[in-house]
TrEMBL record:
Name of the coding gene: Cdhr5
Predominant localisation class: membrane
PANTHER family: CADHERIN-23, CADHERIN-7
Organism: Edolisoma coerulescens
Source species taxonomy: Eukaryota, Metazoa, Chordata, Craniata, Vertebrata
Presence of the UniProt keyword Membrane in the record: yes
Cited SUPFAM superfamilies: Cadherin-like (SSF49313)
SMART domains according to UniProt: CA
Entry superkingdom: Eukaryota
Descriptive protein name: CDHR5 protein
Length: 290
């Protein structure tokens, strides 16, 4: 008697990842749709020779949607949305491998791989002139104010000029790179009156100013390692007459009077003269016509 015995395959093996823990470093400016981890590194095997079904999730809040797999049977991980180092610089992904579809009512065996993604900051932003204020609390954009200063006509200062709201200074906002900044004047420097120190940003004079016309300088801050990353700030230099005297009030004490019940912005009158508004004036011997 010949007996034919057929052995039925029992689903008694779980999928297995060759590397259940992976770490990848990727630049912040990685292009969308770039493969992050290859299919060959993530494919699981199953001793039952079942078809493997994959699912990718993230464990870090607010990092959904940035990474995805090519398909339910293709575990290659790719970048689905542009990265921003200021929003997050690392995340952990969980890749599940199942030997049955997610919706299958049959017994399912599952394996899990953990993929750690570390984002490296890229040189994506131009230098910031300080001080500056973030735009609507967005730490990726910082708005600086123009610089301003004064020089005396027909007088040459040998010290760096004092500017408001502070000295010329710029930084690389990609702070993990922190490229060195160099400075140059690229506009508004009539007759080459001013110079800027390439390393410190200090503004100095080369010659005296003989005209009362103001200067509106354009100072450029450039990254040393990437000259395509630069910013330009304006520096207004006003030319004034030298001041040797302090202003003074015409009187040492002024006396005024007001009436009860008057509305806001009503005049204060001179004491003893209710028909003449109180006027407080000062003079300056340096500027007799002002």
């Amino acid at each position: 008697l010949e007996v034919l015995v057929t052995i039925l395959n029992e689903n008694d093996n779980s999928p297995v990842f060759a590397q259940p823990n992976l770490t990848r470093d990727i630049p912040e400016d990685t292009e969308v749709d770039t493969a992050i981890v290859a299919r060959e590194e993530l494919s699981a095997t199953d001793a039952d020779l079942d078809t493997i079904y994959y699912e990718l999730t993230t464990t870090v809040q607010d990092t959904d949607g940035y990474f995805a797999i090519r398909g339910v049977n293709n575990p290659e991980i790719y970048l689905q949305k542009a990265l921003d180092y200021d929003k997050f610089n690392s995340t952990t992904l969980l890749l599940y491998a199942r030997d049955r579809p997610v919706t299958s009512p049959d017994h399912t065996n599952t394996a899990t791989a953990r993929i750690t993604i570390i984002i490296k900051q890229s040189d994506t932003r131009a230098p910031w002139f300080l001080p500056c204020n973030y735009l609507h609390n967005d730490t990726s954009v910082c708005i600086s104010s123009p610089y301003s200063g004064r020089v005396n006509i027909s007088e040459m200062s040998t010290d760096p000029l004092l500017l408001e709201p502070g000295p010329i200074y710029a930084v690389d906002p990609d702070y993990t790179i922190s490229d060195r900044i160099v400075y140059s004047i690229v506009g508004g420097n009539t007759d080459e009156v001013f110079s800027v120190d390439a390393d410190t940003g200090n503004l100095t004079m080369n010659k005296v100013v003989t005209s009362p016309d103001s200067f509106l300088l354009q100072v450029m801050a450039t990254q040393v390692s990437n000259i395509r990353k630069y910013s330009v700030a304006t520096v207004e230099i006003k030319v004034i007459n030298k001041s040797n005297y302090a202003p003074y009030f015409e009187k040492g004490i002024y006396n005024g009077m007001v009436f009860v019940g008057l509305p806001q912005r009503s005049f204060v009158y001179q004491a003893g003269d209710p028909s003449t508004p109180l006027v407080i004036t000062a003079m300056d011997e340096d500027f007799p016509d002002v």
